[in-house]
TrEMBL record:
Residues 200-388 form the SMP-30/Gluconolactonase/LRE-like region domain. It comes from the Eukaryota. This is SMP-30/Gluconolactonase/LRE-like region domain-containing protein. It comes from Hermanssonia centrifuga.
Amino acid sequence: MAALAAWLYYVTAQSNPGVAIPTPLPPQVVLVEPQSFAVLGQNGPFRNSSFTEFFNPTNTTPPFFQVIDPSFFSILGPSPSIRSVASNPGFAFAHEAPIWLPSTDEVTFASNDGGPLGFSDIDHNNQVSKISLKDVETAIQKSGSTTSAVNVTVTKLDLPETIQMTNGGTGPFRSSLLLINSGRGPLPPSLALVNPNPPHNATIILDNFFGRQFNSLNDAKVHHKTGKIFFTDVIYGFLNHFRPAPLIPSQVYRFDPDTSEVRVVADGFDKPNGIAFTKDGNTAYIADTGASGGFLGNNQTEPATIYVFDVDPKTQAFTNRRVFAYVDTGVADGVQLDDNGNVYAGCGDGAHPANIRVLLQVWNSQGTLLGKFFLGTTSANLIFAGKGRLVILAETNIYLAQIAAEGFNLAFP
């Protein structure tokens, strides 16, 4: 192994001058350079499915970090670790809508709405819960291990009935949780401000587009220069049988919380999903999960693509659409950025969690794939929780990656 590490160091140093590659590699880290798989040969191990086959040429057991570009080491730092910190094998309690609350050092999140192990459908709402990262830190210290799993308490938030099928979340926004709700049956999709503290009173701030219900709202971010809320609307509620037939295209919207004006800023998607802005607010990212969960199941010829846009400085319309990255495994769902502009996305197919060793993938701002976090389970979203802490929602688990990268503050104001 030492000889292999030295050889990898030599090859990488030749192809990426100036990049420091640790040798030996840190625990839980595997290096797989593009030169090693650019040619597989006539009888090579080609993949036939992006949903049921994953790219793990070293056959390493998750969880681990897969380095594809050596600059990923600057994101991971000298001693990265990844572990499960909350688990419930029988319940997909940690699906989407992650929000970090700096004042209490907690992360809130929502269970799977209409999907596997979510126990939510047209007759049953999903739930929003939280964990304490202080509890996580204490549990890790007690474990005495740098990688062993711990299992902290998950606390359910008792929310009013106006909050139906939460799928997205961001903030805190004006000291509240900003929850994006898919709706259920005739109950409308909505944007809501929710008190993070008991009794968790909620205010619905939008539930229609000029009288028509949205399809099933999915994800949102606040534009930090303007304070406007941008959100995606898609048909997954209909496809998962808890919302009626769509009445409106799948689009991206801008909402002014001060005037209640709402308008479309981007269209032409199959299934617009995760959304994120750069720190300066000049660039927007939208994940299109068109390949996942259609009428006839998954279709890997449909989009599994993150698109990037310029944000018009006056109107905030999304312009100059271009491909940022096409995902090699599953689809990119939730999207977040770190303080250096690197793009993170939870990638995989939530419809088949038993078949996928799903990943969190990371690209630099030019769209180069730097590396992956292999979890061994499905992941849809993630959130930075202060310097060096990345909380990854993985349906029946929550993972904490302790790395060098840091996210920027999503709270507003």
